Amino acid sequence: MKKALFAAMVACAVVMTGCTGSFKLTSSIYKWHSSFDNKLTDEFAFLVSCVLAYPFTLAGDLLIFNTIEFWLDDNPIDTFAAVRAADGSEVLLTRTGDAVRMETAEGVFTFTRGADGALLVTNEAGETFTATLQGGVMTMTAADGSVVASFTAA
């Protein structure tokens, strides 16, 4: 019995080494509840999150998402991200492979990396844009110099 228990513990230690994961789901709840300007609202959201959200997000990260990330090197939580346009409107980001699709009020844009590492941005019509990042603000500029869209990290 002791040998079997010891063998099971060694097997678990070998299989689970380095499998801590990034806890993306739990991190997204933290970013949400700490994003309020009012400290009282922030504290209330934190307390509610501790009771209603964190137990489930931690369990999901521990049992599902971090395991997927360990074996496939890709966390499914990376698929969606929250971003806001400069005017405050919602933006949906969807990751598929090496590309990111961004749906905005201004249109749909696809971001990919070129062979030289540069960020390539194209819209549904196939037009290309230049993307620059300063601080937390990304600005997309057309070939004629006009600003197509501006976004800030949420």
Please, what is the oligomeric state?
single chain
The helix fraction, in percent, is 25-40%
- Tally the beta strands: 8
- Spans of at least 5 consecutive residues whose pLDDT stays below 50 are none
Can you write the helix and strand succession as a string? HHHHEEEEEEEE
Termini separation: 54 Å
Strand order of the largest sheet: 1-2-3-4-5-6-7-8
Radius of gyration: 21 Å
Secondary-structure class? alpha+beta
Strand content: 25-35%
Main β-sheet description: 8 strands, antiparallel, barrel
Continuous helix count: 4
Structure description:
The chain is α+β, with helices and mostly antiparallel strands and 154 residues long. α2 packs across α4. The protein is 37% helix and 32% strand. The radius of gyration is 21 Å and the shape is flat.
Using brief descriptors, characterize the structure shown.
single chain; alpha+beta
Summed up:
This protein has about 150 residues and is an alpha+beta fold.
Topology:
Layout: H1 2-15, H2 24-33, H3 39-52, H4 54-72, E1 80-85, E2 90-96, E3 99-104, E4 107-113, E5 119-123, E6 128-134, E7 137-141, E8 147-153
Helix pairs in contact: 2-4
